[in-house]
Specification:
The protein is mainly alpha-helical. It has a domain of 170 residues: Glutaredoxin, CATH 3.40.30. Strands 2-1-5 form a 3-stranded mixed sheet, with helices on both faces. Strands 3-4 form a two-stranded antiparallel sheet. A hairpin with a 7-residue loop joins strand 3 and strand 4. The longest helix has 39 residues. The chain starts with a helix and ends with a helix.
Length: 258
């Protein structure tokens, strides 16, 4: 049996001990403990639906969609930099199997109808450049983007760190391609897309960092994210797992009733 299977059995046995106060669970079914959570039908026969749900909530379930975390931020915003370096990146490093991260560098910037300077930023022109550099890096580097953005935002000088961070985490992407993106039409198109996403927020953002979970913003989740994003993501994922499991129970029950 694989280690994950052994762990599941151990957790299941511990759950039974806590829930029933006995040393060995004795469900009235014909399956060994290692198979109790193998399928919904077995869990129902062995009367361990609740215990299996708790066990499954502790490990990724490919049928359950990950928690979607979207961060609206500015490249030179001090609070954004703290959140990225102390909450977002460490949490993603540990929980990337159950969460996805979308970065939207724009924040409190303004889009202007000007060909020469189409954007103004809260922390001046350097931040506008930083936003565009990060937008281009996100576009060009794919899965390595969050590593690079974390590397930049946790550095003493965000802009100066851009090229070495890119070389460290995405050596196959040349700095010249990022520079061309920033100075060319692609960078402006990416920033316009970020502006559109930010303006479409409902409720509208009032500060940065602004974080949504599964497309929704609440003050309660924001407060939790600022203090422990790790625990919040685990909590939201367990809720999704519970909903998925109970939907299966309802479907299966309806099937047997019919």
């Amino acid at each position: 049996m694989k280690l994950s299977g052994l762990l599941a059995v151990f957790l299941l046995l511990c759950t039974f001990r806590r829930g029933f106060g006995i040393s060995h669970p004795k469900p009235s079914c014909r399956y060994p403990p290692s198979q109790w959570c193998r399928s919904l039908e077995i869990a129902i026969e062995c009367k361990v639906q609740k215990q299996c749900m708790e066990v499954n909530a502790t490990r990724p379930n490919r049928a359950v969609p990950p928690v979607s975390v979207t961060l609206y931020y500015e490249s030179l915003c001090p609070a954004c930099r703290v959140f990225i370096s102390q909450q977002l990146f460490p949490t993603w490093t540990m929980l990337q199997d159950i969460m996805t991260v979308t970065l939207v560098p724009y924040g409190n910037a303004k889009e202007l109808p000007s060909a020469n300077s189409p954007f103004t930023c809260q922390h001046g022109e350097p931040e506008c450049r930083g936003n565009m550099i990060e937008a281009c890096i996100i576009q060009l580097t794919g899965d390595s983007a969050l590593h690079i953005i974390y590397c930049m935002e946790s550095a003493a000088d965000v802009l100066a760190a851009a090229q070495p961070c890119l070389q460290l985490y995405a050596p196959s992407v040349s700095w010249s391609s990022v520079d061309s993106c920033v100075k060319g039409g692609m960078g402006y198109r990416l920033m316009h897309a970020n502006a559109v996403m930010t303006r479409a927020l409902n409720p509208a953002h009032t500060h940065v960092p602004w974080v949504t979970f599964n497309g929704e913003y609440t003050e309660e989740n924001e407060d939790k994210a600022m203090s422990s994003l790790f625990h919040l993501v685990c909590q939201l994922y367990k809720v999704r797992t519970s909903i998925f499991f109970f939907s299966l129970v309802n479907v299966t029950t309806a099937y047997f009733v019919v």
